Amino acid sequence: MRLPYGILTRQASPAPVSLPALSDRGIRLINPYDAWYYALTIGAAFGFLAFAIDALWDLMWLSARVRGYPSRNVVRGVYPFAELGAIAALWVATWLITTEDPSPHPSSRFRASILRLLVSALFLAISGYMLGFFGSVQSISQQALLALQVADIAVVILLWTHLRWLAARLQVSRGVQWRMMVAMIVYVLAAGYFELWPLVSAELLKRPVLLGRNLTNVRQSMLVLSETIGALVMIRAAIGFRSQVKP
């Protein structure tokens, strides 16, 4: 929508003189769909940041184990900041990606509402532990770790399925849609097998899983791989959403 011609005038002489008409080069209101596309683009960019931070920290931890550099004390010192940065970026990404579309007949908001609720609870819980409100990081109980890990996997599944639904609705290329599903499956398999299963086995089945040095390194490598794939697909999603904005 644009302002009509001649809406702004001024009295510069005894005869009224009109200012130049507002046209495509003048002031215009933002298309609500363009604003929505920009919100999705920025949300996907924050999603990239969340996965990238996790991947970089896991890579640092793997390098410290295998190469001895950086030192483990440095990795432990970076951990709270990396965890807070990743969950904060994921929280912002989720709220932007689940922004309600401007359609006069919007679709159901059930999945978006559940996703926002879960990621907000996860953000508050992790922030509380990292900032020491619930005790030190080392004092986290096995039950709390299990609940946080389940919530993390649930958020990732809901986020990627929501992105896949958005991409199909906006007719983003099928290649991007398939990459979203691959990113979700790889992350869920890596986090589920290497992080969730040991907690379930130790807490519910009372059978602790002891990971050797080599298997621990494999776990970290798979996490780095899954998070890197997630970051790259998020960038591709941001490009796809940005391309919906009409010049």
Folded structure, characterized:
The chain has 247 residues and is mainly α. The chain folds into two domains: 1-30, no CATH class; 31-242. The protein is built from six helices and two strands, in the order ββαααααα. It has a two-stranded antiparallel ribbon with strand order 1-2. Strand 1 and strand 2 form a beta hairpin. The longest helix has 35 residues, at 32-66. Mean pLDDT is 83; it is low at 1-24.
Supply the helix-strand structural class. mainly alpha
Sheet having the most strands: 2 strands, antiparallel
Query: How many separate helices?
Result: 6
Strand content: under 5%
Low-confidence stretches: 1-24
Order of helices and strands: EEHHHHHH
Number of domains: 2
Distance between the termini: 14 Å
How helix-rich are the residues, as a percent range? Answer: 55-70%
Cα gyration radius (Å):
24 Å
Q: Which geometry do the CA atoms define?
A: globular
Strand order, sheet with most strands: 1-2
What is the number of E strands? 2
Could you write a compact summary of the structure shown?
Helices cover about 70% and strands about 0% of the residues. By secondary structure, it is mainly alpha-helical.
